[in-house]
Every structure is written in C-alpha cells, then in structure tokens.
Amino acid sequence: MCRCLRNNENCCNHFIIRKRCVCWYEAVLVRPPRRRRCQCQIEGMSLQLINGDENLPTDYPIVFDEVLTKNSDIMCCRECEGVIEIHECGTYLVDWNVTVESSETASVSFSLEVNGKIETTSTLSVPTGQLSGQALIPIKHAPATIRLVNTTGSDVQLSTHSPVANLRIVTLGE
Question: For residue 161, what are the CA distances in angstroms to 50, 111, 135?
C-alpha cells in the first residue's frame, strides 16, 4: 500500500514499482510477522543401548550409550545416568524394547519411571527374549525426568547381541 510523504496517510491503492508508488508517493515497508515455534511440530529423540552383556540389578535404569536421532531442544539425555530430561509441559509418546539374555526369575519386567514414580510396566513371561512397551505420558510440571528401569525383582542379564535396548520419545502436543 502507498503512503503520502506529506501527511503519512494512505493515499491510494496503486501498485508499488521499484520501491515507489505509481503515483510517486513513498511505499510503506510491511514487516513479515515474527516467527514463532510451530505448535504442531513433532519433536523427539531416539536412544539405543549397543553394549549390553552385563547384569542389570533390580531398580537400576538402562543407561543408553547412543543417541540415534534428536530434533528437540526441549529434551535431553544424561547418558551416564540413564535419565531423560523433559523441559516443557505436554503429552509425550514413549515406546521401548529390551532384549534379555537370562533372568533368575521366571519372568522379566521393565517399567517406565516418570519423576521417580512408575507409570507403566512391561512384562515378559519367560526369562529370556525381547519385551516392549509404550505409554502416553502427560507432563504437567517441567522439568521432568524419565527412566527405563529393571523392576524384575532380581538381576537380569542383558543380551550380547546389538542393539540391546531402544527407546523413542516424541511430543504429541499440549
């Protein structure tokens, strides 16, 4: 739109050519709106444990040793502790799988722990094999912590074949 230089009013609806209106009034520059983070963008990360071949005591988390993908600034992994930190409220989809070589008990259980509280548990009814699970986790207060913990009640021997465990977490919205 064209603006008059004398009284700064809209003067015409002529086309702007070479930064000037066809009626020779100065053109008004319109700034594009500021970019905000898209609320519909799915963010997430996937983690993997490659080097298993160890006993995992009961109530200990899986310590993932590789970040496969990460397209989020609102989550991070403290790799040496097996803790995932979430820095924004919302709903998250978490899925995982773990391969167990052997266990002292007849079944194996792994639980998703959010802020120290068990949210969901996956159980394998035999002492060896692969178990998987998934959960929708609402995070109402940030920051929050998530861990995948052995809740079998005894030590489990993780698989010697790579990958031993995987975990993926994605945002679903607020």
Answer: 8, 22, 26
Instruction: Please give the model's pTM, rounded to 2 decimal places.
Output: 0.72
For tokens 């983070």, what's the residue?
37
**Degrees to nearest 5, angle at CA 113 with 110 and 114:** 160
Cα(75)–Cα(66) distance, integer angstroms: 15
Question: Hey, what are 100's tokens?
Answer: 């167990």
User: Please, which pLDDT band fits residue 40 given cuts at 50, 70 and 90?
Assistant: low
- Check if the beta carbon of residue 167 is closer than 8 Å to that of residue 79: no
Residue 99 contacts residue 130 (beta carbons within 8 Å) = yes
Sequence-ordered list of residues with C-beta below 8 angstroms from that of 18, at least 6 positions apart, any chain: none
What is the widest separation between alpha-carbon atoms in the chain?
89
Q: Which one is the CATH code of 44-173: 2.60.40.1940, 2.60.120.40, 3.90.320.10, 2.60.40.10?
A: 2.60.120.40
pLDDT of 1 reads: 47
Give pLDDT, residue 159: 87
* Spatial CB neighbours of 6, under 8 Å, sequence gap ≥ 6: none
Residue carrying the six token digits 């959010």? 114
C-alpha closest to that of 66 among 52, 54, 87 = 52
